[in-house]
């Protein structure tokens, strides 16, 4: 064996050994939450028995995906946005929430300690600026080191979802959603979940408020399992006479959504909500004129990026709709836009 071949083999063995050690380390440190976790109820909030609730849902894109940003996983280049942009987007998100003070706020992609957002505890920053709200946070992405892309790794991620409310809930729980990617991809992906808050009503039944964030880049098998789990859960709650409100980032194009102006071809990972999934008598709520999500293959330019509606609410038949509104902000602070609803018990 000549010298050059020995060097090449030695380098290959060293790289392979290092990769193997890293995967073992990552597997041993993989975040594996139990199916149900009791969450802390922090902050303030008042005790109450509301007949009417206003809600906002918003995937804030970890305050890193405003209009100027693209994202490597969607075909762009950006992995870690400039710190000044993170601060700008987060300030804009907080200002919006302060001005549009819904009774209940569902947020997705809220970072607590991530390389991509410079260790800023966004959950703390948001809750601190809404001091009269109760709040709960649930992890759905906890990885000590995400190694992709290899030339500029994402690094550490501690991120999740949160609910904030003027009313203090009776209970707050995290429910794991089913479905996993094959190993080793799975150890670097999100652990999808939903947060469930329960508020009492005057008739002894409960408002069951569900903040979810479903999988995004699978071919539909994982999302299908998650939808099956969600449907069984909400129907069981409705059978008990409860008032069920499900909101968040469904990562499906919602039923009835039309086409918006765009030049970009629809990416394959945008799936339609299955036609036969919606329970009979339940209502989808979103503003049909305002897209809630854009593709981040490039910075936002109105009329160019693919845009659609994947964020919104689903309500049980025992709830009346008072108002539905989308906020068109040209994706200034996030790759998603908020949806507001006002609801009333029948």
Textual characterization of the structure:
- This protein is 20% helix and 29% strand.
- By secondary structure, the protein is α+β, with helices and mostly antiparallel strands.
- It folds into two domains: 1-30; 34-345, Endonuclease/exonuclease/phosphatase (Deoxyribonuclease I, Chain A).
- The strands form three sheets. Strands 1-7-8-9-10-14-11 form a seven-stranded mixed sheet, covered by helices on one side. It has a seven-stranded mixed sheet with strand order 2-5-6-4-3-16-15, covered by helices on one side.
- The chain is globular, with a radius of gyration of 21 Å.
- The protein starts with a helix and ends with a strand.
Instruction: Give me the Rg, rounded.
Output: 21 Å
Helical fraction equals: 10-25%
Structural class label: alpha+beta
β-strand amount: 25-35%
- The CATH homologous superfamily of the largest domain is named Endonuclease/exonuclease/phosphatase
Strand order of the largest sheet: 1-7-8-9-10-14-11
CATH architectural category of the largest domain: 4-Layer Sandwich
Largest sheet: 7 strands, mixed
Shape: globular
CATH names the topology of the largest domain as: Deoxyribonuclease I, Chain A
CATH uppermost class of the largest domain: Alpha Beta
| SS elements, strand count | 16
How are helices and strands ordered from N to C? HEEEHEHEEEEEHEEEEEEE
Mean of all residue-level pLDDT scores: 94
- Spans of at least 5 consecutive residues whose pLDDT stays below 50 are none
How many structural units, i.e. domains? 2
Measure the end-to-end span. Answer: 82 Å
- Please give the count of helices: 4
């Amino acid at each position: 064996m000549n010298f050059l071949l020995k060097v090449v083999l030695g380098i290959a063995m060293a790289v392979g050994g290092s990769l193997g050690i890293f995967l073992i380390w990552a597997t041993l440190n993989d975040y594996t939450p139990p199916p149900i976790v009791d969450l802390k109820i922090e902050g303030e909030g008042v005790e109450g028995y509301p007949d009417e609730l206003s809600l906002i849902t918003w995937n804030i894109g970890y305050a890193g995906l405003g209009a100027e940003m693209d994202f490597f996983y969607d075909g762009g280049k950006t992995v870690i946005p400039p710190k000044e942009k993170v601060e700008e987007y987060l300030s804009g998100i907080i200002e919006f929430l302060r001005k549009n003070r819904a009774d209940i706020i569902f947020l997705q992609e809220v970072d607590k300690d991530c390389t991509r957002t410079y260790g800023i505890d966004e959950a703390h920053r948001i809750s601190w600026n809404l001091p009269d709200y109760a709040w709960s946070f649930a992890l759905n992405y906890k990885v000590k080191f995400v190694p992709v892309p290899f030339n500029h790794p994402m690094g550490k991620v501690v991120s999740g979802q949160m609910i904030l409310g003027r009313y203090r809930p009776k209970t707050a729980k995290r429910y794991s959603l089913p479905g996993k990617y094959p190993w080793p991809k799975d150890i670097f992906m999100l652990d999808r979940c939903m947060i469930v808050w329960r508020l009492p009503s005057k008739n002894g039944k409960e408002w069951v408020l569900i903040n979810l964030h479903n999988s995004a880049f699978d071919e539909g098998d994982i999302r299908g399992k998650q939808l099956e789990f969600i449907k069984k859960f909400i129907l069981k709650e409705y059978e008990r006479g409860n008032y069920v409100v499900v909101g968040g980032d469904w990562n499906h194009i919602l039923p009835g959504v039309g086409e918006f102006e765009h030049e970009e071809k629809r990416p394959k990972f945008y799936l339609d909500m299955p036609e036969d999934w919606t329970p009979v008598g339940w209502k989808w709520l979103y503003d049909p004129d305002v897209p809630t999500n854009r593709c981040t293959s490039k910075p936002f330019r109105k009329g160019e990026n693919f845009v659609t509606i994947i964020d919104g609410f689903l309500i049980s038949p025992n709830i009346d709709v008072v108002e539905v509104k989308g906020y068109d902000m040209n994706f200034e602070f996030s790759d998603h836009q908020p949806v507001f609803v006002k609801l009333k018990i029948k």
